[in-house]
Amino acid sequence: MTVTFSVPRFDLDYCLEQLLKHKPPRLLPPQTIEQLCHMLKTELLKEANIMSLQSPITIVGDIHGQFHDLLEIFEIGGTPPNTNYLFLGDYVDRGYYSIETILLLIVLKLRYPQRVHLIRGNHESRTITTNYGFYTEIVTKYGGNTEVWSHITDLFDYLPLGATIDGNIFATHGGLSPSCQQLDQVRALDRFREIPHDGIMADLVWSDPDPEIMDFKLSPRGAGYLFGYDIITKFCRENDLIQLVRAHQLCNEGYISYWGGQCLTVWSAPNYCYRCGNKASVLEITHSNMQSKTNTEKQQQVLPGQYFNVFDASPENDIDTESGKGVNGFITDENVNDSEIFADFFKSIHRGKQAEYFL
Ligand SMILES: [Mn+2]
């Protein structure tokens, strides 16, 4: 499908209208996207590698191109600028609407820079998006034009790697790194580059907590590490933190709490890939001053002032799944049910792109 555009308009409210007021959402012209990316890069240059944010704030996990479900998040969690949002990355790949999803987030960030915060996930990368759907989606929707993909993946290099909330919660896409004992080591990195294969920057977007282990272990994903209770406890103590909040892993109930709430996983793509049948959530943090817990907080094993707002897939998705669209990226029926560890892009490259895992 080739899309032709009239004269590009550079007006953020106009862009929002194109994306929000039409079904399906209207794509923005390549020239407009180039301008938006340029403008956002200029803004992100000023952001630290780890942003300092304050509650109240709502934290969103992986979205993976599920545009209708992103709109559902705004429905249940409130819309910017009324609600502050921190998005933990993995905006693109897999779902049918990666380009619409990232465009909406880019425009919202530019429109409400103090209310919308975006960090980088392992999918915000040239290599991963080439293999898992975003590149192909752009080529298809923009009639063979790959410039849009270049502009957006260049922008990904500018995204911050994490955030602190009220100074005592650390949020990042994946997890901890054996090369990083102090948050200041993250602050000192040169992040304006493609995600490397190893080192602190790679581990932050690739690692996972594991309640079964102690210390660090190489991750079966082929990048990043698994880390145990001793590691996170030490990291929190040395950095004056009470908690790590992260995304990156599919959760059937939409979230997982590890170690009594010391580490939380928030997953925001319901019925992932339109077939996993999982719930999704956003994490609402109203304060972090450790007052006594409510019953819901005890039930969800979160800290005082925190609430997982759980939701199901938007009915809008049915229109696409019933029309028999295939999901983006490599996927097979066997690996789609693997809800624990399901990635390995480095290995998949060596296997000649025959992915056995998915991410
Ligand atoms: Mn991820």
From TrEMBL:
SMART domains reported in the protein's UniProt record: PP2Ac (SM00156)
InterPro entries attached to this UniProt entry: Calcineurin-like_PHP, Metallo-depent_PP-like, PPA2-like, Ser/Thr-sp_prot-phosphatase
Alphabetical list of Pfam families matching this protein: Metallophos
Listed EC numbers: 3.1.3.16
UniProt entry keywords in alphabetical sequence: Hydrolase, Manganese, Metal-binding
Chain ranges of the Serine/threonine specific protein phosphatases domain: 119-124
One Gene Ontology MF term: metal ion binding
Keyword Lipid biosynthesis: no
Known catalytic reactions: O-phospho-L-threonyl-[protein] + H2O = L-threonyl-[protein] + phosphate; O-phospho-L-seryl-[protein] + H2O = L-seryl-[protein] + phosphate
Family: Belongs to the PPP phosphatase family.
Protein name according to UniProt: Serine/threonine-protein phosphatase
